[in-house]
């Protein structure tokens, strides 16, 4: 399989996860084997020792020590079954490293997952990714390539690999929601946290981690701890994948050793910092231009700068767009992405977004936004309300001067360009009331039943407005009750 | 501003949620108490009395509520005396009465069959003599009427709303036939009952007649002639120029010229 177009890749320092991607769109199995060699099975203790030596962490955002996760799954499984689950449904609109790995280098991810699965004696490997995207077809093709190679006599692992396509939502990347989705339940975060390592896919102990984690594991097994730790800082050796988008002229997935300066990463993507850089995605925080100039790419460096590396999302804002409006757009998106399970999140996040929008219009107040943020913080089953609160509070701090300008003049003079990438909004269905004028006798019952959407003219005949989807029941009643059978409902558009 | 979190139901007074809740609760209560009654001997005895009451009166109740339904249905088309709000209420009452009437009718038919007064076939085809046969015919027509009533909105989409009117109008056949059935099958009706039915029949027939006549005698609906200027042969007389300013620019120019 050769994908038509793929996420761009750049690098600073040595090529590890992105090795070989300069000359090809996708590494198929022979290319991958030539580049990375055959896979050698390891014992679990061997892997854990190596992982601990380089202090490898989960790369999905939470940075949980991977060795502890491995040990927890192995303890929970005992001599029973367990499952290895690859989280390839990031859900973050500003991130494309999962898609990049699955589309361009799927065998590296599978190598890592299979390595862990064989060491854990797992029942199967499950790769969860977004349904209907190129990533899904690429990883499915990769699984087929391995099976075909085995038929042809190669010694690929015979462990079962299952690809699960999911509906993409912002919260579908959350671990609990992902496990539920793979189990065939609704992809929403569970009310009570359960560690996947004790009860995950089909209730079995599950090793759940991000695609990049497994790819890093494969690289670590190939290079050995010493070679692996040759680049990067001493406390967090190795490389990280960063997704640079937004105001970058040259958006790409960048592989950089830890300890690289953030400004170098931004330079290679030809982006200007402008009003700030968003680190860690839409649940992350803004760095102002001065901090961003000196910030170091590593968990520790980002923490010192006041952000968190998270899943490695870097969004420079640039200077040409209105930062308050951009933040309001993202807040509105995040509010709409609430799964609607927890009341404070469902009702509070739209209020937060409204508050930010009012600020962008120059009518709101910072205090009102802070109050509505306080009503949602730490009041939900998952991290979504907290992460949104962090983003909004960070925006309030980072764009203080712009907000003051907005409050005084109604605008900072710059239009909202939509620099922060957001998926397109799905339109809610709207309905149009059609009237057969030859039948209508001007009874006026429709105007009585739908006073907000039907007005009668001087002769007593109706004129209609579009009816929103949530008034469908009432509109249907008007259609049913029309004495002349003259009304009907059609989808507007 | 209308908002989805605060939909405005109040002005139409049509929030029937309480009524629906009450109806469901009472139906559930009746079913539960029937179940509870079956548990004791005394309860079974009471239940037997209840069944024999329904055996005698379910048909009567059905007839009374269906009479009300027909009257209300006729009333909903009334435009002279009823405001739109009351016409909406009349439609709702028409539906509620129809629902009750159908429920009693089904009870009546089910009881008559299960107590073996008539054979099951009599529910669909008139096999049990002419008096019960009236009821069968009325029941068949009622089925058509009920179905058309439920799917009314569908007919607004099709090109032939008169099909709906025709089918729904079979109520005007079913109802008198069912009155005949009520007066002739079973026990003798008291004379005041007969008279009141005849009065109902006469009232509805006259209202129907008025409606039909009004529809047939309605003057043709054409747009009226507007009295436009008549054509004439009078000679041309051009009036002198307009003194008042026609446009703002004109006014400014005149003002400037005047100094």
From TrEMBL, chain A:
InterPro entries: ComplexI_51kDa_subunit, Nuo51_FMN-bd, Nuo51_FMN-bd_sf, Nuop51_4Fe4S-bd, Nuop51_4Fe4S-bd_sf. Keywords: 4Fe-4S, Flavoprotein, FMN, Iron, Iron-sulfur, Metal-binding. SUPFAM superfamilies: 4Fe-4S ferredoxins, Nqo1 FMN-binding domain-like, Nqo1 middle domain-like, Nqo1C-terminal domain-like. It comes from the Bacteria. Its cofactor is [4Fe-4S] cluster; FMN. Residues 324-369 form the NADH-ubiquinone oxidoreductase 51kDa subunit iron-sulphur binding domain. Belongs to the complex I 51 kDa subunit family. This is NADH-ubiquinone oxidoreductase-F iron-sulfur binding region domain-containing protein. It comes from Nonomuraea harbinensis.
From TrEMBL, chain B:
It comes from the Bacteria. The keyword Transmembrane applies. Keywords: Membrane, Transmembrane, Transmembrane helix. The keyword Transmembrane helix applies. The chain crosses the membrane at residues 21-40, 56-75, 96-115, 130-151, 163-183, 195-214. This is DMSO/TMAO reductase YedYZ heme-binding membrane subunit. It comes from Nonomuraea ferruginea.
